[in-house]
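Me: I hope this is not a bother. Any chance you could explain this protein sequence and its structure tokens? It all follows right here:
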Amino acid sequence: MSNQGKDSFKAYSYFCPCGQLFLTIHVSLTRLPQRQLDKRHVVDEKLNHIAHFSTGNKYYITRSDGGYEQRIQLLCRRCTLECAYALEAAPGYIYVDPTLVNEKPVTVSVSNLKE
């Protein structure tokens, strides 16, 4: 096991069921808050992360309270499964489905992070 210097740190990578890397972030999703509506983990895009997904279509869903929301699909680059979404009304957050992604601890180089 190598030492982690100032140029790298421990992070967590999340993979689509097809095996494609989807998201890398410095904290486990289990430590992040969950959205009450659908139990998705809420990732603030201000956190250091590396996004490995593509943006899909916008669509509307009807909520149980009678309201609606517009979502933006965040898709696996390989199989196009929607592993997460973003909300049009709340930019800056990613809502990740914990039932669709598999976690793997990794070491990340600081130079690869999105600021």
In short: The chain has one domain: 10-110. Strands lie at 8-15, 21-25, 41-44, 49-51, 53-62, 68-76, 82-87, 90-96, 102-109. DSSP finds no helices and nine strands in the chain.
